[in-house]
């Protein structure tokens, strides 16, 4: 299976280990990720100039379509952004015609033929849990994790169509094949607070603290993410900005392809464990060798 790989803007700069671990896991599972010179998904201008947002997203879809490839992205913000644009292009003919006139200047057009997928959906549905189980070499024992879905992949459910927005289970199913145990925590679907970072830092940190406290009280040893922005919040922001009195709240965050990669027996260097801001090396003690 071949996909056009869409890392988005932040992964190549802030989270190279998310891109690296995603590529390593996909390669091990026989998925070919084709590098395409994509532009921004359009999300940063979505609330400033709607048509510019749609044009930016549509150009990416047209690029993938020209190659005959569906898009795979590990970034849930980019996933949601591209799904929104695809939806509105289908719904609004006048918008679609204006966008295609601009794309035609580059010899491209949006035709609705490209499927937008997130890494987790590809692993769960295209690869399949049963096949993944056959590839697992190490199962985690006693590792309790708090699965954090993130907002952009779940809502609005009718547009993104990732999972049940009120009671999702896709992520937990993927965690289960590694042997790790997902704790039940009441704030698992709440926002991480990152959209408020650098706009209202106090509120952003307050939202994160509530989630960390809830996850720790539920018995989690690690947070588990599959979202660019959520990982930045729970790893980079948590590590740098929680005040001294909050040290007992700190909960390291690991990316799902890092966890899966360890379970598949991939080299640690390919998963970038050393690049997480908060130390996650202790997770290896839960894998019997």
Describe this structure as you would to a colleague.
The protein is built from twelve helices and eight strands. It is an alpha/beta fold and 289 residues long. A four-stranded parallel sheet has the order 2-1-3-4, sandwiched between helices. A four-stranded parallel sheet has the order 6-5-7-8, sandwiched between helices. It is globular and about 55 Å long.
| Coarse morphology | globular
Q: Rounded to an integer, what's the Rg over CA atoms?
A: 19 Å
What's the number of helices?
Answer: 12
N-to-C order of helices and strands? EHHEHEHHEHEHHEHEHEHH
Look at the structure and give the CATH class of the largest domain: Alpha Beta
Count of strand segments: 8
User: Can you tell me the number of structural domains?
Assistant: 2
Poorly predicted sequence stretches spanning 5 or more consecutive residues: none
User: In angstroms, what separates the terminal alpha carbons?
Assistant: 32 Å
CATH topology of the largest domain: Rossmann fold
Average pLDDT: 96
The largest beta-sheet arranges its strands as 2-1-3-4
- The amount of helix comes to 40-55%
SSE diagram, text form:
Elements lengths: L1 E4 L4 H5 L1 H13 L3 E4 L14 H17 L3 E4 L2 H16 L1 H12 L11 E3 H17 L8 E4 L9 H4 L9 H7 L4 E2 L18 H17 L4 E4 L2 H14 L11 E3 H9 L3 H4 L18
Parallel strand pairs: 1-2, 1-3, 3-4, 5-6, 5-7, 7-8
Helix pairs in contact: 2-11, 3-4, 3-5, 6-8
